[in-house]
Design goal:
The chain has 777 residues and is of the alpha/beta class. It folds into four domains: 31 residues; 290 residues, Glycoside hydrolase, family 3, N-terminal domain (TIM Barrel, Alpha-Beta Barrel), CATH 3.20.20.300; 261 residues, Glycoside hydrolase family 3 C-terminal domain (Rossmann fold); 122 residues, Sandwich (Immunoglobulin-like), CATH 2.60.40. Helices cover 29% and strands 18% of the residues. It is built from 23 helices and 28 strands. The strands form seven sheets. It has a six-stranded mixed beta sheet. A six-stranded mixed beta sheet has the order 10-15-14-13-11-12, with helices on both faces. α6 runs parallel beside α7, α7 runs parallel beside α9 and α16 crosses α21. It is globular and about 85 Å long. The N terminus is likely disordered. Bound molecules: beta-D-glucopyranose. Beta-D-glucopyranose binds next to loops.
Length: 777
């Protein structure tokens, strides 16, 4: 102890002058317990108070460069988003963390190095969710985990899995769906993929972080039931199924308490109920009280500020924070650290297998894009013989993802124009020339960023659409066989959108109008591609065009994936993970998003409660433009032999045979919904309970799918009982092709009500919530 105390002052001074690496190396190491060799408890016991306070606050002190252990390769810290503090005398190296959901966030430039570093831009999470194929989500995770590992990254700050609560949510592109089951299953597979590579995942942002407006301090007021059923459920699924190494708490408060300071959230729910045993880190600069964060077992505060370290050290000295608490936090961090590439000394190459990643990115994109409209088999079209009038800036420039921490420094993103040409289509050369010249005026997508810690990639410069006069459009309509128009919407971290951004602009609507008129006058077809990071208005213009393909933000291979589908080489099989409302005002959250007071909201009340997305539109019969789960194919499917078999303990097994009755090989997403009996609790009209995608079925081929539905899956959250309860009575179990189109259904009786899980009474709203329940027509 005496020795440790003498060291405190010494180390403190060393840190201040940024000399810690060299000073520590000079110390004889054998005197101290060594991380990875000696018991963890001994290593922690050998840490001074200041060292402990440094261990739990990331190492973002710009003057300190985390030094590798003697004899180990020095990693380049600017290549990643953040890192933990190293303690060389104890053999503890820094652990490296990097964003993010759609690709590894690697800084393009490093000082003194002429090379530019890239990572693959994969399709955004909303597109991955549209595939409804967990095996593809796992493959994306594997590919991203591989890139992270090869860049020396230990923990990938992904997946982001908040709920699409409102169509204006700025980070929607990073999130999967409006449904917690789809979110949880896709994110689970992705985490398993990442972690299969020896890289940790960090599921974020835990929890109820469903808006960007006032994101650092917004107080989310939400009922216990909506929290459990909608906002926590996806996280629960991932924690229990995929065992993520880490969880990132969110910026917001839930019912008055910052999530990183909530013991109820991070201890009672996350660890005790769900069995999480990794470490929790804050979102960058999240929370306002480091000591409370420690007590809530938000183990690591990122990216690390000296004032946090000092506050924690003071609290340890004056008894406001017990040594047991911080020791537990450190143990949580170091237990995860033991699994990392850095600690295992993985010989990373900085040369990931990009060819493999490209193949995965392209395949996932084409298997997940959603065909929203296809009048009279407008698509597919024959490559080679078809010429296309290609309109819209973003037909010639692919916007592969959103902005902010989820942006990826990719080398090249394949545009629709490139993809179509490579597939053998001819493009109208006049349009192509004008658009490419116009786009050259835009700023580059990304600036040179030396450090990802401070430098955010700037928003893409959005050039206004080229103004075409009618003669030019008519000429193109005469000279080409069909038109394709791309509509783009950028989404990004740090801000929500405005309703004007949800609606199409006057210029876009006029382009759709005039191109449709001119091509239809020539009896030629028009297809719209939606290169968007979230939901946009479609109801007012969808009747004017013949086809709509929702490409979302499809990663760097997006243009190839579009060509794969347009040419009919592959059949679309994506389905919407989120409802497209008719008008923004129809969204259940529109009345209270993004909170009050208007202008600078400090609180938002989730008055729509459990009625999020299709749970609302279906229950209250609000018409939508495209419903949850909807998506067309070039081929057709029939569903036969639907059966419900009673299993043990109140379980049901559903069987259904899907047959490809059309002319193209294709895959079909099968959705299982349930309607609960009316009992003590009110319920949405129906809820998604399971889903699967068939294998590729050739025309005439069939596949029988099987779904196990347990009472836990049929349960709702009973606030009074603080329990998940499957109420007795008759359940309607349905097979559907979208939330509002049922193709087979049957009854299933649960003889007795069952408490399927008892939980803690936590996160109780401090004020009454006036739940909005519109009258059913
Ligand atoms: C974002 C996180 C991200 C972190 C580190 C924050 O602003 O909300 O999603 O992981 O920055 O870049």
């Amino acid at each position: 102890m005496q020795k440790n105390n003498q060291n405190i002052g010494f180390y403190f001074i060393a840190i201040m002058f940024g000399l810690i690496g060299t000073m520590q190396e000079a110390l004889p190491q054998q005197k101290y317990p060594q991380f990875g060799i000696d018991p963890l408890k001994d290593v922690i016991a050998a840490m001074t108070i200041d060292e402990k306070a440094l261990m739990v606050t990331g190492a973002k002190r710009r003057e300190v460069y985390p030094t590798a252990l003697p004899g180990k390769k020095q990693k380049n810290i600017v290549a990643v988003g953040g890192y933990t503090y190293p303690f060389l005398r104890l053999g503890i190296p820094p652990i490296y963390l990097s964003d993010g959901p759609a690709g590894v966030r690697i800084a393009p430039r490093r000082s003194g190095d002429s090379q530019t570093y890239y990572a693959t831009a994969f399709p955004v999470a909303t597109l991955v969710a549209s595939g409804w194929d967990t095996s593809l989500s796992r493959e994306i995770g594997e590919a991203m985990g591989h890139e992270a590992l090869e860049y020396g990254v230990d923990i990938l700050l992904a997946p982001a899995m908040n709920i699409h609560r409102d169509p204006l949510g700025g980070r929607s592109f990073e999130y999967y769906s409006e449904d917690p089951l789809l979110t949880g299953k896709m994110a689970s597979a992705y985490v398993q993929g990442i972690q299969s590579q020896g890289v940790g995942a960090s599921i974020k942002h835990f929890a109820a972080n469903n808006q960007e407006t006032s994101r650092r301090y917004i107080n989310t007021i939400v009922s216990e039931r909506a929290l459990r059923e909608i906002y926590l459920e996806g996280f629960r699924i991932v924690v229990q199924e995929a065992k993520p190494w880490t969880v990132m708490s969110s910026y917001n408060k839930i019912n008055g308490v910052y999530t990183p300071q909530s013991r109820e959230l991070l201890v009672d729910i996350l660890r005790k109920e769900w069995g999480f045993n990794g470490f929790v880190l804050t979102d960058w600069y999240g929370g306002d009280d480091p000591v409370e964060q420690m007590k809530a077992h938000n183990d690591l505060l990122m990216p690390g500020l000296q004032v946090w370290t000092d506050t924690i050290a003071d609290a340890l000295r004056n008894g406001n924070l017990s040594m047991d608490v911080i020791d537990q936090n450190i143990e949580n961090i170091l237990n995860v650290a033991l699994k990392t590439g850095t600690v295992k000394d993985y010989p990373y190459t900085e040369k990931p297998d990009f060819e493999k990643s490209k193949e995965v990115a392209r395949r996932v994109a084409r298997e997940s894009m959603v065909l929203l409209k296809n009048e009279q088999h407008t698509l597919p079209i024959q490559a080679g013989s078809t010429s296309i009038g290609l309109f819209g800036n973003y037909s010639y420039k692919n916007l592969p993802g959103g902005t902010g921490s989820g942006a990826v420094n990719y080398e090249h993103a394949v545009s629709v124009a490139e993809g179509l040409k490579e597939a053998g289509f001819k493009l109208d050369p006049v349009l192509e020339k004008k658009y490419t010249t116009h786009l050259d005026k835009g700023k580059p997508l990304r600036d040179k960023a030396d450090s990802l810690i401070t430098a955010m990639p700037p928003r893409d410069s959005i050039l206004s659409e080229l103004a075409w006069d009618n003669h030019e459009i008519e000429r193109s309509a005469k000279e080409t066989d069909m038109a394709i128009i791309t509509i783009m919407r950028i989404f990004g971290e740090g801000g929500d959108r405005h309703v004007d951004h949800f609606n199409l602009t006057t210029e876009e609507l006029s382009l759709i109008d005039r191109v449709s008129d001119a091509y239809h006058a020539q009896r030629k077809k028009v297809v719209v591609l939606l290169n968007v990071g979230g939901v946009v208005e479609t109801a007012s213009w969808k009747d004017k065009v013949d086809g709509i393909l929702l490409t979302w933000q499809s990663g760097q291979e997006g243009g190839h994936a579009v060509a794969d589908l347009v040419s009919g080489k592959f059949t679309p099989s994506g389905k919407l993970p989120t409802t497209f409302p008719v008008r923004y005002a129809d969204a259940p959250s529109a009345k209270n998003f993004p909170g009050t007071p208007i202008g600078n909201p400090t609180e938002v009340v989730y008055e729509e409660d459990i009625y999020v997305g299709y749970r609302y539109y279906d229950t209250f019969r609000v018409p939508t433009s495209f419903s949850f789960g909807f998506g067309l194919s070039y081929t057709s499917f029939t569903y036969t032999n639907f059966k419900i078999e009673k299993g043990k303990g109140g379980s049901a097994t559903l069987l259904v045979t899907v047959e490809n009755t059309g002319r193209y090989p294709g895959k079909e997403v099968v959705q299982v919904y349930a309607t609960a009996p009316s009992g003590k609790l009110e319920h949405p009209e129906k809820e998604l309970k399971a889903f699967a995608k068939t294998r590729l079925l050739q025309p005439g081929e069939r596949e029988t799918l099987r779904f196990e539905i347990t009472p836990r899956m049929l349960s709702s959250f009973d606030t009074g009982a603080s329990a998940w309860v499957a109420e007795k009575g008759v359940y309607d179990l349905m097979i559907a092709v979208s939330s509002d189109t049922i193709v087979a259904n049957g009854k299933f009786r649960l003889a007795k009500s069952q408490i399927t899980e008892k939980v803690s009474k936590s996160l109780i709203p401090q004020v009454p919530i006036n739940i909005l329940r519109p009258v059913k027509p």
